[in-house]
Specification:
Elements (H helix, E strand, L loop, with lengths): L2 E6 L2 E6 L4 H7 L23 E4 L6 E2 L10 E3 L3 H17 L14 H8 L16 E2 L5 E4 L8 H10 L4 E4 L6 E4 L16 H5 L5 E3 L13 H10 L6
Parallel strand pairs: 1-5
Antiparallel strand pairs: 1-2, 3-4, 3-5, 6-7, 7-10, 8-9
Amino acid sequence: MPVITLTIDDELVSARAGQSILEACREHGIKIPTLCNLDGLSARGGCRLCLVEVAGNPRLLPACTTEALENMVVTTHNEKIDRYRRMILELTFAERNHTCAVCVSNQHCELQTLAAELGMDHVRYDYLNPELGLDTSHARYGVDHNRCVLCLRCVRVCDEVEGAHTWDVKGRGIESRVITDLNRPWGDSESCTECGKCVEVCPTGALFDKGSAVAEMKKEASFLRRILDGREKNEWRR
């Protein structure tokens, strides 16, 4: 595969043709915040936290869906970018009901961690406070729509890795919700394999193990890369 060179944060780096800016940054240890992106899943560009500056382009671009090109000059961190990222996080917190103190993923939440890392210590926007419920009909797992950030990791891992496509999305804009089996209760799903992949890749406490207490839910999304690498090498067919 052809190799290209580009400049990221004043450093000349190499990348493979066809890689995204985010993939190139990760290979060179350059950290860019993201919620919807996860190694092993298709890029969505939904959370917009990975916005970067590209010389010659007047708009900030999502690093996860923007292809790295020869001689491209990229800036991943500056005052403007960090301000936008904090604003995006504030809007995310304001859209639903993220009450960290009583969440099963408190202190183990990617949204909470990003807020701390980016210095988002308050929300300037009015909270929408929608009336959202929980679905605990499944024998092992539950979904709390109050904490969902619509990253759609659950939808993609169920479709692309497990192959069940139990999860999907209904509604548009503020009315969007993740659903199972065309909006059946999760416990009534006929397609769910109970693998738990959706729960492990969820970045917040939206998907959780039933019975988990406050701050008890720890997730390990890195399992996904191990599964995909094992499949590629046919490790389980020997």
